[in-house]
Amino acid sequence: MEIELDFLEDNDPRSECPHIEKYFWSPVSIKLDTLNRVYVTETNRHRIQVYQQA
User: Fold this and answer.
1) Band of the pLDDT at 39, cuts 50, 70, 90?
2) Residue 40, class by beta-carbon neighbours within 10 Å (0-12 exposed, 13-18 middle, 19+ buried)?
3) Backbone angles phi, psi at 12, to 5 degrees
4) pTM beyond 0.70
5) Which of 3, 23, 37, 48 could make an SS bond with 52 (beta carbons 3.0 to 4.6 A apart)?
């Protein structure tokens, strides 16, 4: 018996989350705070990414 995995082959890049996590899907705003952290809000993934200098 073979497992049917056709539903994973839809060529939707969002289905490969670990590989594309660094990319944005519909960013809507960018803010910079007093500590120079950058905040990016994103609609499709319902998240806020925070970046800061190392």
Assistant:
1) very high
2) middle
3) -90, 115
4) no
5) 37
